[in-house]
Sequence to fold (116 residues):
Amino acid sequence: MQSVDLLDLKSNFIEKISSNAFISLRLMKVLVLQDNRLATLHRDVFQKNTLLESLDLSRNKLKKLDKGLFRNQRALQKIDLSFNNWEFILNLKIQGKNNINKNEGKGGKEGKNSEQ
Fold:
């Protein structure tokens, strides 16, 4: 199953993802988790997905992200974090060139930068 390039889990009512859910998908480049019920993400959930280029977490129930969540994503170019229930907007530390959509939708309190 390591040959999966794109995984689309959009609109599946997912509430929780285990820390090792994507560990065998090391070649995955695109992950779509849009329109689920995710409130939190374990800091190691993307640890082995170093080739991940695009991540869509929009339209979930996320309130905050662990500051180490994207620590191994050097190829990450696009992240969509819009339309979540943000308590604050983070200063995300992500390697490489990227396009982060985090300021649209409900809940984001811009200007209050914090890391969890």
